[in-house]
Each structure stands twice: as structure tokens, then as C-alpha cells.
Amino acid sequence: MSSRTDSPSSNMMHSCRLRFAALLVSLLVPCSTEGITRNEEFDSVFPEDGRPLKLDQALLTFHNKLTEPVRVFYTSDYCYRCVKQQLVTVKPNNNNASAIISTKFALTLQVEPQTRNSTLCRWSRTYKEGGHYSVWMQTPSASADPICSVSVDKSPNNAYLPLLVAALLLAVIGLLSVVVPYIYRRRCTSKFIKVICCQDPLHSVDNEAAHDGSEAKPSRLLSLDAFRGFALTVMVFVNYGGGGYWFFQHAPWNGLTVADLVMPWFVFIIGTSVVLAFSSMQRRGVGRLQLLRKITWRTVVLLIIGFCFLNYSPRDGPLSWSWLRIPGVLQRLGFTYFVLSLLQTFWGQKQIPERAPQWRSAVQDVLLFWPQWLIIVLLETLWLSVTFLLPVPGCPAGYLGAGGIGDDGLYPNCTGGAAGFIDRWVFGDNMYRYPTCKEMYLTVLPFDPEGILGTINSIVMGFLGMQAGKIIVFYKRKNVHILSRFLVWAVILGISAAILSKCTRDGGFIPVNKNLWSLSYVTAMGCLSFLLLGAMFFIVDVKGWWRGQPFLYPGTNSIFVYVGHSLLGFYFPFSWEMRFQHSHWELLLQNLWGTGLWVLIAFLLYRKKFFLKI
What we know:
By secondary structure, this protein is an alpha+beta fold. It folds into three domains: 39-54 and 57-154, Domain of unknown function DUF5300 (Immunoglobulin-like); 159-198, no CATH class; 199-205 and 214-352 and 365-607, no CATH class. Helices cover 47% and strands 9% of the residues. It is built from 19 helices and eight strands. It has helices at 11-28, 42-45, 161-188, 207-211, 222-239, 262-283, 288-309, 329-347, 358-361, 364-367, 370-389, 417-427, 438-441, 452-474, 479-501, 519-542, 552-555, 558-568, 584-607, and strands at residues 57-64, 70-76, 85-90, 95-102, 107-113, 121-125, 132-138, 147-154. A hairpin with an 8-residue loop joins strand 2 (70-76) and strand 3. Helix 5 packs across helix 16, helix 6 (262-283) packs parallel to helix 8 and helix 11 (370-389) runs antiparallel to helix 14 (452-474).
């Protein structure tokens, strides 16, 4: 999911948001830089009137006491094998120059004489937000080599204090949301205190059926709704800005941040929900033709919403095609849902055998669906073949890098390798133009994280979720079997991810990369998904220690919350024009406030039993 700060605004997007805002109101009664600002931009960013630095910025002043001019170069330690970039030039004999630097990642600085190719000094350091630093370049004695020393002129801000305070407050609120309902339920079952309790509509039981001895209606799997709601809440928060913290934004290329976890969780949940929903419809005798009509309708609606409402703005007016983005988040989710539903419709409606050999009973949730597995293996073989064997002009076979200044600057126009090449050939300019690698790797080509090739692995991720659903169906009321199989799958996928990535960010066979939806990314996210769903299943559905609040509420109205937060995020009361842009305090408050409002809206809709479904 791309943060809203990455996309441009326009009249078309504005009008779409206003139209949908009116719809929502009727149902219910609104960038930090990755690189370094050079010296000629210094006055506009840090003027002499003493206004503070922006988020994730520090001030470096270089004092040259040498007799020759020097140049200062930098590279980000997060940027894989990147070509060094010039920061400032400092004149000799007690002159100085200043620059604004990013504090997100560690920087390696290198000082070289302007007139010859050599290195005077080189060091790596993580600078702190809001700090003022001085670098002194001097020669201790006439015969000594030049040295560089760093001093702190102004102490940096404690950038993580707002996050710590918010985490403590949320922990208290979360504890109360668990303890208070638990105490209330205990009062309802007490022998000494008779209290009339309102039962959860998702756990309602047909009293007449229970009275005459027939089986009660099956309850909804609350852990799945809680998982979905948790993922959606995190998504809303990171899309609103994540308080301005870099780890709540997408990784520049390889690696993982909090924002990179959300979408695969959703895809995993789609797969699990498909199995549970289709199994329920199978028991009710819903025919295959009726299933196909329902699948097609939901897919078309998701594609229309993603393409028409949640699209990035065109460049040349409301009716322009020039920058209209064809791929997108809902487009990928819709297509993934379509493929997974077809798999379940044609090859997934199997009767659970009552008697089977012991060895087969242990793996029947896999063997019975061998046609599905065959299709998934073929799809993954296709992804591997195209990714590593497709010839891409000017690029090495199997290139997985960001291009730009990465990889020693050898492949500047190879962003995304085969995945980027295919998308640019099919979509042209109608794709995402602000990839996460653009600022750090200085790339110039568009790259879409929801492109064609990555959708194959999105289907594989959803199929892992289908496997979780099959486990729940096959081993119903056998909680130990369910949890143990979740753990086995998590271990298998975790080991696979470790082997593929070699437990490194950039040096593996297939690095973990959300932009590419690499195989190691899918296995790593599959591992986390099985663990998280298993933990929630144990706590919510097995032990009943927690009922999923407050994540249960957005989890039961996910389409409404996702579309609503995307269209209304720029409007009051979800956001406002900030007055204190030099600190995380107001931005974090605004993002938490906007996220909390959507949880509250979902709660009110839940109480009114309004659930937007397609």
C-alpha cells in the first residue's frame, strides 16, 4: 500500500473524493525527503531566521582549515552498492559550507581534495533528527595527514518520545478494551449477580433450534475478522503518514518495514475467507453457475472502485488518459480474489472423507486438492522463468535491483528487471510514477508495485491463505491439530524465506522485496500470517480471552473503511493543516486521530448492523 504522501493531487481526484464523501455522510447521518539537500538549496530550507529543521533532517556544517578546496560526497548505507553523490564543495583557509542531510538511515561521508583523486577521510554515522553538527577538516601538524572530526553544536531532538508516549497510551486503552468486556461477561455468568447481557450479533444462536435439539447455527470466526481489522487499522495509519517515521513507510527497495506487512496479510485473509465462504455455500447447496456470477460481480466491482475512485490523478485534466494508473491495490486484490475463487469453485469443493489411512489423513488437506497445487506450482514456475530468463534490453538476466545509482550505476534504466520491463511495455506511462526507490536510488523510470508479474505471487500468497482455511474446515473443533499445522506451515515458510534471502537484506538468492512481490517476500509473509492468525485463533476463538475489539469492527466492514479512508483522508476531521511540522508530535496525533475515527465509524456501523458488502 502506497502512502498518500507519495501521490499527486488534482481536480479529478478532488471531485471523486467529494462525491464519495457525500455518499459516506448519507450512510453515517482530507513528505519527507529521502536524500540530501545540497548547499545551494540550504537557504530555502534552513533560513537565517532560525526556523527549525523539518522531520528526519539534521544540519551539517563543514569547516575547511586546509590549504586546498575539498569536496564532500555521501552514500546512504541502506542504498545497495550506490554510486557516491556530491554533497558540498568547501573552499580552503577557514571557509565553511552547510547542508541538510537525511537522518533516516546511516550515511557514509567521504572528503576528497578537489584537485586530485584521493580520500582525506571517510566515516559512517547515523545522525539524529534536529541536530546541528560540525565537521572540522584540518591538519594537526605540518607533517601529519589531514583528519576530520565531528562535533555536536546543537543536541538533536528525541524523535521517538512521541511514539513512546503514544504506544503507552494505546497499550492502556488496549488493556482496558480487553479487561472491561471480560469483567462484564463474567458478571453476566455470575450466580450471584443477574445481569441481562446483549449478545454479540456475530455469535447469535437460534434459541428454537437449540430448544428442539437441532444443531445451532455456526458462529463466525472472530479471529479472522480481528486479523483483517488489525491489518486494515495498520494500513490506515501508515497510509495517513505513520507519524512521519520511516519504518511506517515502505522500504526504499529490498527489506521490510511495517507498511510492507499489510497488503500480503489482506491477500492471505482473502484466501482463507474464500475457502470458508465457499464451504458454507456448498453446504447450502449453492450451484456452480451461481457462484460464478457472484465471483464475477465482486471482481468487476473491485476493479471499478480501484480504477475509477482510487486512482492517481491525470496530468492534463479530469478526462486525460496520460497519467491514469491502470494497476492498483484494489485491482490486484480483485484479480487475486477472482483466480482463488475459480480454484475453489472448480477444484476445491471436496467432501472430507470419513475414513482414510493414517498417513493420508495427516496430509488430506493437501492431497485432495492436487489440481490446485499443480496450477500454483505452474504459476510460480512461470514467475521464476520470466523473472530470471526473460531478456531485458540493457539489463543482465535475472536482475532484481532498483537501477538508478544502485549496483555501481551500471544499470540505471533497469528498475525492477523483468517485472518493470513488462509493465512499461504493457501500460506505458499509465502506471505508478513515484516508486519507493525513486528518492534514494535516483531512478527515472516508472515502476508499479502492483504490476503484472507480481500479481502471480499475490495469487500464491492468497493460496497460502486458502491452505489455512482448509485446515480450519478439515480439522473443525480439533484446535490442537489446527494450531500445530499452522505452526508447521509457518516453520516451513520461514525456513524457505531464510534460505532464499540468506538472512540478509540485499545479498540473497532472491531478496525480500515488496515492490517485486518476490518469492522470498511471499514465504516470509506467509510465515508471519500463519503465526498471527494462529495466535489470534488461540486467544479469540479457543480461549476466549479476547473478542477482537476494536479490530473486529473495521474487520467486518473492510471495504467501507478502505475506500472511505482513501477518499476522505485529506479532509477534516481526519486531517488538518499542521502548524508544527518540525516535530512528530502533531503528525503522529493527526494520523492516530484519523485512524481512530475510522475505527469509531466502523464500531457505530457495527452497532447499527450495517455491513457494506459487494
